[in-house]
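seq as requested:
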Amino acid sequence: MSEKSENGVTIPEKSVIELLVTSLMPTSKYIETRFDHLQVQIDSIKEDVRDIKEDIRNLEARMDKRFEQVDKRFEQVDKRFEQIDKRFEQIDRRFEQVDKRFEQIEQRFEQRFEQIDRRFESMESRFNERFMSIENKLDILIARIDDKIEKGLRESRSLSIRLFTFAMTFSAISVIGMLGKIFGLF
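struct tokens:
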């Protein structure tokens, strides 16, 4: 079973298959170089993994140190809060003292206001008494003035009547004198 090729060369079938297999399959040297290259890559990856593990260990150590520092800072903060709590207790005590003082001042003000209220009540009663006495005096004064005005009006009426009578008498005498002169009686 041999086959002829186009050049006229005859190639046995077995050789054709081998030729096909060898042309399709790479050589062992190629495979070895590929495996070597793959091994180098794997070694590089292993080394990178070791480096990463080392970096992670270093990172863990640094993180542990940082956490210890943070823990110490939290302890310091706790101490500061304790101090602040003590200060707030002092402030609370001071506020209680201030509240007591305000209560005392409020009591004093209430006492003062009660005294002022009593004084105003006594002043009001005195003012009412004084006002009533002034009102009585004013009523008496008005009554006197009314009496004097009434008396003055009576006198003035009588005086007006006298003056009117006098004026009428004088006018009558003047008219008589004028008539007498006109008629030649005088």
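Residues 28-183 form the longest helix (156 residues).
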